[in-house]
Amino acid sequence: xxxxxxxxxxxxxxxxxxxxxxxxxxxxxxxxxxxxxxxxxxxxxxxxxxxxxxxxxxxxxxxxxxxxxxxxxxxxxxxxxxxxxxxxxxxxxxxxxxxxxxxxxxxxxxxxxxxxxxxxxxxxxxxxxxx
Amino acid sequence: xxxxxxxxxxxxxxxxxxxxxxxxxxxxxxxxxxxxxxxxxxxxxxxxxxxxxxxxxxxxxxxxxxxxxxxxxxxxxxxxxxxxxxxxxxxxxxxxxxxxxxxxxxxxxxxxxxxxxxxxxxxxxxxxxxxxxxxxxxxxxxxxxxxxxxxxxxxxxxxxxxxxxxxxxxxxxxxxxxxxxxxxxxxxxxxxxxxxxxxxxxxxxxxxxxxxxxxxxxxxxxxxxxxxxxxxxxxxxxxxxxxxxxxxxxxxxxxxxxxxxxxxxxxxxxxxxxxxxxxxxxxxxxxxxxxxxxxxxxxxxxxxxxxxxxxxxxxxxxxxxxxxxxxxxxxxxxxxxxxxxxxxxxxxxxxxxxxxxxxxxxxxxxxxxxxxxxxxxxxxxxxxxxxxxxxxxxxxxxxxxxxxxxxxxxxxxxxxxxxxxxxxxxxxxx
Lengths: 131, 430
Ligand SMILES: Cc1cc2nc3c(=O)[nH]c(=O)nc-3n(C[C@H](O)[C@H](O)[C@H](O)COP(=O)(O)OP(=O)(O)OC[C@H]3O[C@@H](n4cnc5c(N)ncnc54)[C@H](O)[C@@H]3O)c2cc1C
Known about the structure:
The complex is a heterodimer.
Chain A: H1 6-17, H2 19-44, H3 50-74, H4 85-130
Helix pairs in contact in A: 1-2, 2-4, 3-4
Chain B: H1 3-16, H2 22-25, E1 33-37, H3 41-53, E2 58-62, E3 67-69, H4 74-78, E4 88-90, E5 100-102, E6 106-110, E7 115-118, E8 123-125, E9 128-131, E10 136-137, E11 155-156, H5 162-178, E12 180-185, H6 196-210, E13 217-222, H7 232-244, E14 247-250, E15 254-259, E16 264-269, E17 272-277, E18 280-282, E19 287-288, H8 291-294, E20 311-312, E21 326-328, E22 333-334, H9 341-359, E23 372-379, E24 382-388, H10 408-426
Bound molecules: flavin-adenine dinucleotide.
Flavin-adenine dinucleotide is lined by residues 37-43, 62-63, 65, 71-72, 74-75, 105-106, 132-134, 158-159, 192-193, 196, 290, 292, 330-332, 339-342, 344, 373-375 of chain B.
């Protein structure tokens, strides 16, 4: 395994995925920006990130569970082809790619809603006090 | 540089600080002229690595073939899963910049005068010669056999090329539909990917089971020796699996002739010739050196590798003992084992590292241990990741994968990982 350096893995991935590698990397970057933005908005609104995090975790786990059964099909195999813990670990690892995307999206949406909900509530409160 | 290559190179350069491939870390300023005969897996991999490691050298690659085929994919085409276009690309896509590609075949090797001759009669002199011509599939050595027959009358052969592999897939499906006797086997002598004959047997068995037709087909594997595979633990495991799957084995049966009209195959056995009826036959021809190599002084002069023209080479350095400026890499190398693309992945860096060291005035110490690998597909979605060395020791690359266990992850490596790894190897990065 010693010959699988990060450079080698990068080249193998780029030859395997072609343009998709760049699409996935761009998506990952966009999601990272989205997560940071949502986290900053939550902080500005003085809201705890706990709720969006729990929602993201649930969505991530559910997506992982669903995709674990779909991943073998992507390789022209059936779920019954999974034979032993190593196969399941790899199926789960691959499922974590779509699960990560879903979890990130859920966190961003829930975080922004939570932050803007708070902002609306504070505005309403200020309005009510003033009024 | 194409935009995609630029992006890849830029990103890889960023990663380069994390890890540097040992053979690429060393360079030589030598202005030597290096000729590579053959632009297949070995030739292109050598060219890419030499371009990085010997920037001032003149590198000439000679091969008339313009298309490039990912041969390990042929079994997946034969299984009916891949299409020929998935394994076909152009050699030009992998040709490193600054390399002269002469689009002709080498017709003669003259190692005494350090020259090769091409189809047009051109003489090319060299300081170093890397022989990477691959091998010749000798279908003519089987009486009655012709590649034009593949796909007809129950004849299959995934080795002949991507289109023939596709015709073989159709032949397997027809055989399963109609039922009868299916014969499999392998030639005597050295061959590339000795696991592929077994893979095709397992694939036919699995396809028949999935179609609910296993009872209608009788599968027979004709082994050329007293075993089905030369590595003892693999031989034991596959023999066991064949028995479990009701695949019969005939030992010391070597295909000598076929009669496509009457569907009869003749085998040479220890007890003389034996003729078997078939409804389907997967033919794998004997393999030998291409004519230009065979007719040259390069092959072994005696021993079991002499008759088929394999280039004489030291098994650790792949250097020719009689012509020290000549190396043999890939299928043509006259070494025990090592006729897989996975072997090339280890052979090319070793030859290049030693060449760089030598031309830079150092002593090269890289040596090849006979690494050979062939993910043994045992059914749809299942494979055993078998890797071994000259001594027949199993040498698993991944400690968490049991080489003798049918696993989906091994199949995943074959189906999703190998092509990318192969292409990265052609570019000199893996
Ligand atoms: C059905 C099948 C399944 C396989 N499965 C696997 C697998 O699972 N794993 C694995 O690692 N390997 C596998 N292989 C083997 C692997 O493809 C070969 O070992 C590998 O391609 C060898 O590389 P090479 O460069 O030596 O030969 P090749 O890739 O065959 O290239 C040889 C090149 O030399 C050129 N040439 C020939 N004669 C001359 C001449 N006179 N002058 C100039 N050029 C010449 C040819 O045109 C060709 O381009 C499989 C092969 C087959 C057929």
